[in-house]
Every structure is written in structure tokens, then in C-alpha cells.
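Quick one, C-alpha cells below. Sequence please?
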């Protein structure tokens, strides 16, 4: 599911660049989705170019960065069920170490270590 992939990307990046934990990102996610529905999706057909930035191996890499963040969400929070669902989803992917990802990969935007401005 692309929404799950985008949420996982966001959790990893928000943690690395903003210091947000997964719970904070999950709580902001509905607002992000509303913004997509209002400001992006209605206009995407008018774009001159659409770039699909997903990578076949990205969830295997992001798994290493997000699993611990998801496990931090305590059962006392309603978001715990979503965290468990995402952990189950990620269990189907074999982990790939970030060291195996080229420094010019778009995935570096999320995990860090890019040749480009980080």
C-alpha cells in the first residue's frame, strides 16, 4: 500500500530530521493526508511530469529504521493498533542495511547519508 510506504518514509525522516517519534508522526498523518487530498491529488493529472520515487527495496531498508520507533508506541495509545499493523506488514520484508544504499539514492532523503544536501 502506497499510503503505508509514505507514512513509514515520513516516520523515518521526521525522526531523523525533526526529532519526532512515531506517535507524533502518526498523529500528524491525518492532516498530511487531508493536504494531499486537497492540494496534490486533484491536480496531478495537470503535471507535465510525474516521478514515481518508490523503490523495490525501500521497505527492506526503512524497516531497520522504523521498527524500533513503532515498538515505542505503548498500548495505552490508540495508535498502538496501527503500529502493530505496520510492524506485521514490515515482517514480510527482509532487512537491507543502509550501508548498501548508494549515496545518490532518493532513499537517502529519508535515512540520511546523501551526497546531496542533507
Amino acid at each position: 500500500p502506497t499510503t503505508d510506504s509514505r507514512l513509514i518514509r515520513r516516520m523515518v525522516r521526521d525522526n531523523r530530521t525533526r526529532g519526532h517519534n512515531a506517535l507524533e508522526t502518526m498523529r500528524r498523518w491525518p492532516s498530511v493526508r487531508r493536504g494531499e487530498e486537497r492540494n496534490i491529488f486533484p491536480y496531478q493529472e495537470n503535471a507535465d511530469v510525474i516521478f514515481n520515487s518508490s523503490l523495490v527495496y525501500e521497505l527492506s531498508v526503512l524497516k531497520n529504521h522504523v521498527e524500533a520507533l513503532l515498538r515505542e508506541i505503548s498500548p495505552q495509545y490508540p495508535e498502538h493498533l496501527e503500529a502493530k499493523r505496520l510492524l506485521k506488514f514490515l515482517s514480510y520484508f527482509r532487512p537491507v542495511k543502509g550501508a548498501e544504499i548508494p549515496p545518490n539514492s532518493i532513499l537517502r532523503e529519508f535515512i540520511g547519508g546523501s551526497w546531496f544536501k542533507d
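The chain has one domain: 2-29+54-111. The radius of gyration is 15 Å.
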